[in-house]
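Teaching soon. Invent one.


***
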Amino acid sequence: MISIVVDKLSLQSRLFRNLVKNPKFWFVLGFDTLLIVLAYYLAYAFRFESILQGHILRQFTGTLPLILGAKIPFFYIFGLYRGMWRYTSLNDIVNILAVSLLSSTVIISLLLLGNRFAGLSRSVFILDCIFTFGLITFHRVAIRFLCQKFSPGHRFLPAAGQPEKKRLLLIGTGNAAEKVLREIDENNGLPYDPIGLVDDDPKKIGFKLHGTPVLGLTEDLEEHVRRTRAQEILIATVAVDREQMRRLVTLCQRTQLPFKVLPNMGELINGQVSIKTIRDISYKDLLGREEVRLEQDKIGGYLTGKTVLITGAGGSIGSELCRQILRFSPASIILFDSSEENLYNVQMELRHEHENIKTVAILGKVQDLRLLKNVFKQHTPSVVFHTAAYKHVPLIERNPWQAVYNNIFGTQLLMEASIIHKVDRFVLVSTDKAVRPTNVMGASKRVTELLMLAYSAPHWDGNFSPAWRRIQRHADPAALPGVSQPTSHTTRFMGVRFGNVLGSSGSVIPLFKRQIERGGPVTVTHPEVTRYFMSAEEAAQLILQTGSMGEGGEIFILKMGEPIKIAQMARELIKLTGREPDKEIEIRYVGLRAGEKLYEELITEGEGIVDTHHEKIMVLCSETVIPCKILNSHLELLAQHARQLDSNGIKDILQQVVPEYLPDYSV
């Protein structure tokens, strides 16, 4: 306790020495002293309605030392001289008010105790408090105004050689637009000059936001652009639905001006809206930009201070999970991936941008049992997010043994390692392709869901995979509880099922972009093919939310909105590049690929879904649980066919495990 006090005194001493050496401190202190004297003088002058003279002047000069002796020390103690005055904020003004009230209270108390205000006017000291607050606040605000308005590079005092600023028209008048305008006003180096705002609310027309007028309605955007001679448009809103965003994009395209957009709230991890983050419009903006409601306390309850293992950490979902998890201050994040490049990229991003969080990179495959055993023993994760999987439907259809090894056996070994090492929560990332699958990839993911349900059963049979049993023969039986006899465990397993993620491995978006850049054609499998889409940011946030909701054995389904026609997506992507579909860029239909179907679903026949307390998450009920012993007997047969590279044999066994699977034997 004494050492803490000594450290604080030492810190205060260093701060005082630094202030004393700063000439700006003496200037501000001297000016504050003059303002305090002026405030006290004005209080007397207003009270007695005359210039001070005679006994009133003597009274003023006699009490002035008390005023200065009380106020200046209070100003210093409460940090009014430690702020950066050019950045005076509302908090600083509140602090000035508090110090003014407190110092006046102390002065009045001393006078009451000293002479009970004999011959003194009480109203003088009330007026003095008001004038002190007003003058000191004016002083601080004036410093900020002068520093901003007359610093080099500002529009009032342009820096030499500074390029001409673009005339910027903003769509939206909410918090995001306010922050953008404030940053442009404060940051002299930004190449923008805001000349107006437009909004859908007619009541806002004529008002100003940081000096920038609201010109009119968004639907009249072309007219506002012509009248203001705008050179660029910014969609300054971060929470609109799909239809609203598409309408805004269409309106911007009609003006033939370049237009940009602020990232949505999912991308802005800390909610920091900034002009520096603006970017060109992308297709994910057209999906809608509604903010995902997260139960921060519940998510933090199972992530804060914990070790989190993420498989497939370099992928689109895995890397976004890493970014989102950082908000909840985990003890460490274990990055597990088989791709050297992806793993390196996410490791460097986390290491350089979030140095305070410990990260460990593990290069390897989840089906490497000895590596899994070592990772779990060394790092003892409390939470596992399993996103690693082969997802490319046609490739897996032609190489089904890889789905067996990676998607099925890798997931099973990871689940068993979690049980043995007492992981608290295991979140399996599944797919809508597991519903009535017509391809090996979807069938393999459905098998992982069945494994998750089996390990979550209240009366789990304690049956482990042959791989764990082989290791057990050469290990201490006590080291692998439950391998040789039925047992219970404390790991809570849950699955999350959703559709396609924009920009992920195997997504059509990167393919379409490359085809558009080459001048076409853009190849679409079928005019009527539809898919569910979600951004990686939204998917990761909802995965974290489901992790807080599961008690064990649930399959959660994320509400994906309306399915999107791939052909329509291709047309919109072409339009975003400023070209005309079917005229400048051809759209060519090439037929469904191996294992593909026209429509994808999020639930299968016989499954029931119920809403949860979260508006974007549902949960499956009435799931049939297949015991691990039965599943393992099928999986041993799968392993035999996989070793023989027997595609049809693999599909036969998958159909026995997943009766609703419709295999394609022509591949």
Q: What stands out?
A: The chain has three domains: 13-149, 166-287, 305-509+538-559+606-657. The longest helix spans residues 122-149. DSSP finds 21 helices and 22 strands in the chain.
